[in-house]
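Hi C.,

You asked whether I'd gotten around to modeling the 263-residue construct. I have! Everything is below, sequence then structure, no commentary in between.
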Amino acid sequence: MKRVCAAKRISPFFLLLFTLFFRCLAFSQTGSSNIPLQVSCNKTTSLVFPQIIKSIDRGSKDLLVQKVSGAENILQIKGAKKNFTETSLTVVTADGKLYVFIVRYATDPSCLNLQVDSSVSVFEKVAGAKRTIYGVRDHNYEMVLRLIGLFIEKGILYYQLELENLSNISYDIDMLRFYIKDNRQSRRTASQELDLTPLFVYGDRGMVGSQSKQIMVVALAKFTIPDKKHFYIQVMEKNGGRHLHLKISNREILGAKIIQAIN
């Protein structure tokens, strides 16, 4: 009986699967994922990539996308309708990098011209920075929210947040809220709260698994807090009661580190 080499028994179909698998693995190691992006229906958002765009995949038909003629590293995006459901956009460039954007509708997007590589590198740098702030924390039923770093660059404040789940039950994030509020509220006066809209939120905004923790980076236009007020960051649990609040003063904000100083 003739022996058949194992390699000869591998069909072309399985060879194709292996090839695609290793290509995807290579992309995932060299690209960036979960990049936040805001778009609207009446304004065009432009993404500028360092290399020519090779392929584009829309998460839904609610996104309208096109490459700029004569500048194939620029992608223009608009919403096909108002208030569309959060979706994704995947772009592969000529150097083999894969970028995954989490796209949300915004009536007035905070940024209409995004240099992709520079923006991503700033968020990644802040997310990986060593802890510089201690004592700004809140906890509720084995969930802990901490402000562990605060950085500034080009008029943007980057809040480095850590969410830790010490329980055996996963934590589903329902809402992130950022607002300025009076320190003390008189019963005779209406509540004075000013909501702030983040420019971007970097990191997983969906869930914190059991016995795990994750880092989020929130970018806000620079500001300081008026007298007798504080800045609050609120994280709400979906279908639960483990809500968390951070109270941040001017002292922390004025102590923001320059991003270039990150080791």
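If it helps when you're writing up: The first helix runs from residue 12 to 30.

Thanks,
B.
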